[in-house]
Amino acid sequence: QQQAPVFLVTTDHGHQLTVTDQHEFPTTRGRLRLKDMRTGDRILLPSGEGAFGTGGTQEEGFLLGSFVGDGTMDPSGSAFIDVWEADFGDLDYIKDAVREAVATIPTHREYPELDWLKQTPTANSEKKRIGGVRFGKWVASLSDDGSLYGLKERVPRAVWNGSREFIAGYIRGLLHADGSVMMSGHKKSTTLSTRLSSVKPALLRDVQMLLGMFGIVSRVYSRK
Question: What's the whole-number mean pLDDT along residues 205-212?
Fold first, then answer.
């Protein structure tokens, strides 16, 4: 086997790729190997949709994205989606989706179909938790190693191999939990952007690639 040095290529938009100097990129000067590129070369991104798999529904993707963005777990293996007071209008949708998902998990007297925990974290707001042991088992079945913790670090293979609807639901769930819409005024026009916040840079770069599968160009920022 031959060994070659590798380089971490990082674009202004935050895309990262580890390659050798022989790797080719589509650029405004045509296809170029990394070793032949020079300062100022611009790498081209896909403008259309990519290829998708066949597994999963939009509702299942939404549940997984919601758990990754604003879900909790405990040592028993239970998993919960936290729904804050401003989103209580979505409770029935989330409950129905959870019931449908856990239908594949064997019933046990210690594993109720749906656990409800109501909490009041502050004097002015409330949240509800939807989930339980059976939901935890379902969520863990989508992780790469069968655990819940890794799902919050990187996008799992189940998503990369999922259907268009499943991936769209996953992104939707993340934005539902940790997204925001920002409107900024400029001299020439008003800018409207949708943003996703996370303390996991690798997760954000994975989501950036998922958005690219829909032909959506995004940028990763480092903010406090």
Answer: 93
